[in-house]
Prior knowledge:
Oligomer: single chain
Strand order of the largest sheet: 1-3-2
Number of strands: 3
Largest sheet: 3 strands, antiparallel
Structural class: mainly alpha
Radius of gyration: 18 Å
Strand content: 5-15%
Amino acid sequence: MSDLKMGTAEARFADFIWEREPITSGGLAKIGAEEFRWKKSTSHTVLRRLCERGLFQNVNGVVTSLISREEYYARHSEQYVEETFGGSLPAFLAAFGTRKKLSQQEIDELKSVIDRMRG
Length: 119
């Protein structure tokens, strides 16, 4: 699962799967038509791509996830920090902090997360 990047429409489609699984591929085609105005073939193409990335599986027309939404976003975040900041979480936070001042509550929450990570 090296390429975790999804476009906006793919991410929304994936969210529909996570929210409704198990779901039939036919049901997903209906969602694609209603939400995105996609043809059935487009929904199946997007589903195939998501399955090839290792996010979902389609067994006998029933689609289920191979990883949870939370696991996907955790891995995606790790990949982003690795690719963009050389894996440095402090560099990421420093870059983030240059554009947005953290509230005291956010600072306290980050301290709490760090304390939990220390064990």
